[in-house]
Amino acid sequence: MQTNVEFLLNGKKVSAAVEPRLHLADFIREEALASGTHIGCEQGVCGACTVFVDGRPTRSCITLAAACNSADIRTVEGFDTDPLMEAIRDSFKRHHGLQCGFCTPGMLTTAYDIIRRIPNADRQRIRKELSGNLCRCTGYAGIVDAIEDVLKAPPAAVIQPLERTEAPKTNPDAPGFPEPLPSDSKPDAAPDAAPGAASVTLPDPDSFGSAAVLTKSMDLSAGIEEAWQLVSDPEAIVACIPGATLSGPVKDGIANGTCSVSAGPIKASFKGSARIRYVPETKSGQLVGSGRDGFSRSGLEGRMDFQLVPHGRASRINLEMRYRLNGPLSQFGRPALVEEIANGLLSDIAQRIDARLSGSALVKQQDQPTSISGLRLLFNAIKGLVRRTLSTH
Ligand code: FES
Ligand code: FES
User: What ligand is nearest to the CA atom of residue 105?
Assistant: First the structure.
């Protein structure tokens, strides 16, 4: 069944009936014949397909065309008379910021976003913001030089950035948006959440039957009693989850806070709650949580079980994770890659627990919670997949 959509593409109204699974990049190239948008990885990694949707850089290869009803879409062809883009194009030429040009439409779009959004960006910040765009031939020095040069005296941008907190003007009835939580999954609703905290609607721990299960074991340098002391402190365990921050003290086992994920221009900040339960007799526990990213309208639900066991004179932690992601972000990557990313996350958690126990240098980094770098986890994921694929042949 096709869905009718209508949006602005480079200032012109476009109406079409599209298949629900048609990606925006394919629509732009095949139906609207605007081939300036390039398609590389088709899974949200390389940034070649980046276009503006309602003023926000967006991976068109993982965005459904049907979800863009009423949106204002601008591709690299839509900047012909834009003074800022003209300055960026000139600067790329002067600084040799391109060779084959495959990555260039995405690079130009991202450069435009960096310059209008972060007028005081230094080289390090430019590199960080560009981390979601890959170039296989030029290298990045010329591209960074080009952006740095335009930042010295940038002409006014015609397209203004949206506030990060504003939701895109997309169609909530279109496919790709998160399903509401099932009504029977509210047994852990906690009316005693801290004032101002996100509303607490926790999934049923037993509702993860069909979710992917990931397990990880890691030897810890401390004995089981010492390790239990750390693990049974809910605030310490949250501090070991990269990207997680608490919005207040943990009360009655309920933690409210935020978990941030970033991969180049893809940024999500899941606000939500988790319940932490402990079973001291078996030195085990369980964390069940759910969160929602308002900007991408995506939801994340997860359950992590952990248990400490003696291991020689030290101890070992066994972690088991189940999760569900819904909404537009769930289209990020193939399921196997998402699984590898979650696997990398489990390793990070185990390493952080061990670092806290052993007092190593990582402890200091833990005190400054950082967002989960999707890109770093993704590269590790791709490496892992390639290694396993090769070893089976
Ligand atoms: Fe969309 Fe690579 S083609 S990110
Ligand atoms: Fe060839 Fe970037 S210029 S991929």
Answer: 2
Kindly state if the Cβ of 133 falls inside 6 Å of ligand 2. no
Ligand 1 centroid to Cα of residue 331, in Å, is 12
257 beta partners: 246, 272
Q: Please tell me the distance from the alpha carbon of residue 171 to that of residue 168, in angstroms, as a whole number.
A: 9
3-state secondary structure of 383: helix
111 CA from centroid of ligand 2 (Å): 15
Q: Is 187 close to ligand 2, i.e. is its CB under 6 Å away?
A: no
Q: What is the pLDDT of residue 50?
A: 94
Find the 37 Cα to ligand 2 centroid distance in Å: 14
The pLDDT tens digits for 8-51 are 999 999 999 999 889 999 999 999 999 999 999 988 889 999 99
Residue whose tokens read 């839509």:
78
- CA of residue 4 to ligand 1 center, whole Å: 25
Model pTM score = 0.53
How far, in Å, CA of 4 to CA of 69, rounded? 8
232 alpha carbon to ligand 2 midpoint, in Å? 50
Ligand 2: which of 38, 92, 93, 103 to mutate, most ligand atoms within 8 Å of CB? 103
Query: Is 181 a pocket residue for ligand 1 (Cβ < 6 Å)?
Result: no
Give every residue of the chain whose pLDDT is below 50, as ranges: 162-198, 200, 264, 333, 361-375, 385, 388-390, 392-393
Q: What domains appear along the chain, each with residue ranges and CATH number? A: 3-77 (3.10.20.30), 79-159 (1.10.150.120), 207-391 (3.30.530.20)
pLDDT by residue (tens digit) across 366-384? 444 444 444 455 555 555 5
Q: What pLDDT shows up at residue 221?
A: 87
Q: Where are the beta strands (DSSP E) in the chain?
A: 3-9, 12-18, 50-53, 56-59, 72-74, 212-220, 244-246, 254-263, 266-279, 284-293, 298-311, 314-326, 372-373
The pLDDT score that the predictor gives to residue 330 is: 60
The atom of ligand 1 lying closest to the CA of 40 is 3
